[in-house]
Write a structure and sequence with these properties.
- The structure is a single chain.
- This protein is mainly α.
- It has two domains: 212 residues, no CATH class; 157 residues, no CATH class.
- 68% of the residues lie in helices and 0% in strands.
- The chain is built from 21 helices and no strands.
- α10 runs antiparallel to α11, α11 packs across α12 and α16 packs antiparallel against α20.
- The radius of gyration is 23 Å and the shape is globular.
- The mean pLDDT is 89.
């Protein structure tokens, strides 16, 4: 079979209504969530095995009960789970509906809820149906990775998308709510402030941010008291500082651009600011192109940059964090009003193989064990995409293709010689 014939058959298959139906997308993602959760439940009868396979959820669930008992949210509890909690005090309130039922029911509800939240964020977005379809299928395997880890990163992706959506729809009050929710739970949500410059109601946006910051800050005190809350915020800061140090050369943490450089060199003495500051400058340069703000493709590309940046420049990034970054990769690829090049297609394939598939059994275990994990190579393809995005968003015209064509036609008419 020729290459052209195979491509034609693939295009025909993917153009069928079944694959483009939101109902199919919904069923696919819910199956991923339920299958991922149920795979953990086989160990429920063995407490030791269950703690090992469901450690993250048990940490999350424990924050509610520890807050209820008035004990530390950040101390180790080796009889309950390994590792410690690193989420804000607000999380103990947020996770309550999933902590109250028996653990195996709470686990299923937790994973299904996170998946539903991200699915609804994609569906409620300003993306076209073809963009939504691409996100659903391209990110399906990465979603499975995040589901197996039962991580809140799925919700962080949803929070960032919804922050952007609300700014686009001039619902600044709710955009601020999502930003502050993500910030007071895992800090990552603060990147939603990147959309401030696209707001048409900046005064309202600022007031809403202050309002929701106060609400999120003191909400746990309603249930647990101000003295307890004050102590827990102090412990949260200490736990994040300690965790950042632990992450630097950790095999399973710092899966980021920072991690690639740190783990490749093995150095501990330099500051990550040597990479973060140039990264922030590159990230901020597009804001100077104010004439491009009016184009949806430009704003979507900045959203893609936010989704990748928050993962690439965090020492807390891990394998399950890449559900955030891969949504950004798809938005970058699909938002451009020009035809994507062979280089761009290669980058997408590279992302899928090395970033998405590397944690799975499909990927050669030797390469994963000896190279991908020790050198944080899962971050490499996304880093290349983000660097190309930075170049495009600083140099390209994001006007719709038909507007560019019309402008070119006007320019040709204006310079054409006249006849008498």
């Amino acid at each position: 079979m020729s290459k052209q014939s195979l491509q034609a058959k693939c295009e025909w298959l993917l153009s069928r209504p079944f694959w483009q139906s939101p109902r199919t997308w919904w069923v696919l993602w819910m199956l991923i969530a339920v299958a991922g959760a149920c795979s953990k439940l086989f160990s429920y009868g063995n407490p030791e095995s269950f703690r090992h396979h469901c450690n993250n959820f048990l940490i999350f669930r424990g924050t509610f009960w520890h807050a209820l008992e008035g004990i530390s949210l950040y101390a180790p509890y080796p009889l309950e789970h390994a590792d410690t909690n690193h989420y804000g005090p607000l999380f103990s309130v947020f996770v309550a509906p999933f902590a109250l039922p028996p653990a195996f029911i709470g686990l299923i509800l937790w994973v299904v809820f996170l998946t539903w939240w991200l699915y609804m964020a994609v569906r409620r977005s300003t993306f076209s149906l073809s963009q939504q379809c691409f996100i659903i299928f391209f990110c399906a395997h990465e979603l499975l990775t995040a589901v197996f880890m039962m991580q809140f990163n799925i919700a962080i992706a949803a929070i960032i998308l919804l922050s952007y959506y609300c700014v686009e729809r001039e619902r600044d009050f709710w955009a601020a709510a999502f930003i502050m929710l993500g910030t007071f739970i895992k800090l990552y949500g603060i990147v939603g402030l990147a959309f401030f410059f696209f707001s048409k109601h900046k005064g309202r946006f600022i007031f809403s941010l202050i309002f929701w910051a106060v609400i999120m800050l003191i909400l746990p005190a309603i249930f647990h008291g101000f003295d307890y809350l004050r102590a827990q915020y102090g412990e949260w800061y200490a736990s994040l500082t300690e965790k950042n140090t632990e992450n630097l050369l950790s095999t399973m943490q710092n899966v980021s651009l920072l991690g690639i450089v740190r783990k490749s060199t093995g150095l501990l003495t330099y500051s990550d600011l040597w990479l973060i500051v140039p990264g922030l400058i590159l990230f901020s340069l597009p804001y100077l192109r104010r004439t491009q703000y009016e184009f949806s493709a430009f704003r979507q590309t900045l959203l893609a940059s936010v989704l990748m940046f928050v993962v690439l420049f965090s020492t807390g990034s891990e394998s399950s964090s890449y559900i955030i970054a891969l949504v950004g990769v798809v938005i970058w690829y699909t938002a451009a009003p020009w035809k994507r090049s062979h280089t761009d297609i290669f980058l997408m394939v590279f992302v899928f193989i090395l970033t998405s598939l590397s944690p799975s059994d499909i990927f050669p275990s030797y390469l994963r064990r000896e190279y991908v994990y020790p050198f944080a190579l899962k971050a490499l393809p996304v880093t290349l995409v983000w660097l190309k995005l930075c170049w495009e968003i600083c140099t390209k015209n994001y006007a719709p293709a038909n507007e560019i064509a019309m402008q070119g036609s006007k320019n040709r008419d204006a310079t054409a010689p006249t006849t008498t």
